[in-house]
Amino acid sequence: MKKLFLMGRSEAGKTSLTQALRGEELHYVKTQYTSSDDDTIDSPGEYAESKHFSAGLACFSFEADVVAVVQAADEPYNLFSPSLRSFILRPLIGIITKIDSPYANIPMVRQWLVNAGCDRIFLINNVTREGIDELMEYLGEDLPQMTLAEAKRRQGMGLNEWEDMAK
Ligand SMILES: Nc1nc2c(ncn2[C@@H]2O[C@H](COP(=O)(O)OP(=O)(O)OP(=O)(O)O)[C@@H](O)[C@H]2O)c(=O)[nH]1
Ligand SMILES: [Mg+2]
Hints:
CATH superfamily: P-loop containing nucleotide triphosphate hydrolases
Number of helices: 6
Helix content: 25-40%
Shape: globular
Strand content: 15-25%
CATH architecture: 3-Layer(aba) Sandwich
Oligomer: single chain
CATH class: Alpha Beta
Largest sheet: 6 strands, mixed
Bound molecules: guanosine-5'-triphosphate, magnesium ion
Structural class: alpha/beta
Radius of gyration: 16 Å
Number of strands: 6
């Protein structure tokens, strides 16, 4: 199972997503600090919202196998820069939550995540668990283990360590 790091603005649905992934009923808990369990690292939205703290997110990301930008489908503006992935040395995915919101604008949020450089984008409703199985399937596939020599060989070919050699 890949360990997932979640970052996104407050109320984006990160903690709810961890509950949905664990099969729990949703219960609101404000995230006060970055916390880690076996499968996920959850961060407070204020880290993504503050210039001073946002660099810390990159540091936490090194503890994870995959980094997710979580954005609710009804967010009115985007916090994440284009090409964000260039300073994260992990696969980057996008997770769009609250796809059930009456104010959802999925094409707009998807475009923000594409611009950030996300490899894959998942659409999730944490309340009904729509989309959770697809995300679980992706997380269930372990990343290939490799030696430092193999990682360097890939870098020498201009590939990220986790990229498929066949591409
Ligand atoms: N309708 C709907 N509500 C959701 C969904 N996901 C989360 N929520 C609600 O949105 C609110 C905020 O969710 P949280 O999971 O606490 O958000 P967070 O990103 O962890 O926020 P911080 O801890 O402040 O960073 C809660 O009231 C959730 O019940 C969803 O997919 N659909
Ligand atoms: Mg939270």
